[in-house]
Amino acid sequence: MTDPISRRAALGAGVALAGLAMPRILRAQPAVVKLGILQPLTGALAQDGELGRIGAEAAAAAINKAGGIQALGGAKLELVVADARSNPEAAAQEVEKLQAEGVAAIVGGFASPVCLAASQAAARYDLPYVVDVGVSDQITQRGLTNTFRFAPGFGQVTGTALQNLAKLNEAAGKPCKTVVLVHEDGLFGSGLAKLMQTELPKHGFEILETIAHPTPARDMSNVALRIRSLRPDLVIPSSYYGEFVLLARTMRQQRIRPKGIYAVLNGAASNFRFVKEFPDAALNVMDCNHWHDPKNAEALALKKSVEESGKFWAYNIPLNYSCVKLVADAIQRAGSADRAKLTQALAASDFTGHIMPYGLTKFVQGQNQGARPVNTQVQGEDIKVIFPEEVADAKPVFPVQG
């Protein structure tokens, strides 16, 4: 029979040994780094917000699978997802919640008004904010040291769009001379239209009319009828997804056939949902916009994975994927998730691990100097890059019809 005192002593020794072992197990588990993901997951822009979240989650999964943040002992990225609800006021409120959650930085925003409000709110806490899409150049012109835009703004995109349009028109013998501008009446669309009104005449184009529409819009019949009456050679739309799909389908139904639809920063022309659901309306539509590098193996693997999961591919995915990787790279170089150190590391970025057709990531006053847009065109049921030549995977079809 076992002596009860000896038994108690043995049990006590076991508990003591377990107590000694437990701290070693706990110390072996690196702390997580919280990263805020702010997207419009409900409201008019919910589709774009969901695409952004898909990209961010894919990047975090890839980073964690590869061992996490090595400089922090393999710390994993933990995404804290917030819903901007497609409006600036809600976005600012969500920043307060992310601040309370203790996130090291915030990525996302999508729409320019959301990015403006959210980055301003984040600045109160010196919280680094990486803009994924928001194209208004006001975002980087306020002197906020916490704000970094990875993608190009509308000034650069519009300049590139006009250069490439002039090149296309020249190569085709200048078949297009007249233009109708169609734009959403918010910050991004109105800003683009104003810039286009100034710059298009310098390239030899006559603007017949500029037509604004609200977002959301339920009907585009009047816009299409006005285009029909003006009979422009080109239609240049700058709209979000739903509005451009409605316009393109209405134009198709009414047999309005300009020599080209040349979109700039369009919410649908660079989205496979539009191409797959409305192939006739999408055919040959061009866009100057964000897009992944079609020759990047990591980008192609991600695209394949997203499509195999039953989701549509659009530029929001590779942009947010790249933005999360950018932040992870900055944390690695800073050796810390401290906000001040992380802001310094972002400002000193020389990041190349993205999947965009960009050069080296270098921020000047918060704008990535390595960013650039590309021109795409819907050909068949695919979206092809036609400019710049070094990343293009197709030749442009222009003019289309008329």
Describe the structure.
By secondary structure, this protein is an alpha/beta fold. The protein has two domains: 32-152 and 295-371, Rossmann fold (3-Layer(aba) Sandwich), CATH 3.40.50.2300; 155-289 and 375-387, Rossmann fold, CATH 3.40.50.2300. It contains 13 helices and 14 strands. It has helices spanning 4-27, 46-65, 88-101, 112-123, 154-171, 187-199, 221-230, 241-253, 272-277, 279-282, 297-308, 316-334, 339-347, and strands at 33-39, 77-83, 106-108, 129-131, 147-149, 178-184, 206-213, 234-238, 260-264, 286-289, 363-364, 367-368, 374-379, 382-387. The strands form three sheets. The chain has a seven-stranded mixed beta sheet with strand order 7-6-8-9-10-13-14, with helices on both faces. It has a five-stranded parallel beta sheet with strand order 2-1-3-4-5, sandwiched between helices. Strands 11-12 form a two-stranded antiparallel ribbon. Helix 2 (46-65) crosses helix 12, helix 3 (88-101) runs parallel beside helix 4 and helix 12 crosses helix 13 (339-347). The chain is globular, with a radius of gyration of 25 Å.
Short synopsis of the structure:
The chain is of the alpha/beta class. The protein contains 13 helices and 14 strands.
What secondary-structure arrangement, pairings included, does this model have?
Elements: H1 4-27, E1 33-39, H2 46-65, E2 77-83, H3 88-101, E3 106-108, H4 112-123, E4 129-131, E5 147-149, H5 154-171, E6 178-184, H6 187-199, E7 206-213, H7 221-230, E8 234-238, H8 241-253, E9 260-264, H9 272-277, H10 279-282, E10 286-289, H11 297-308, H12 316-334, H13 339-347, E11 363-364, E12 367-368, E13 374-379, E14 382-387
Parallel strand pairs: 1-2, 1-3, 3-4, 4-5, 6-7, 6-8, 8-9, 9-10
Antiparallel strand pairs: 10-13, 11-12, 13-14
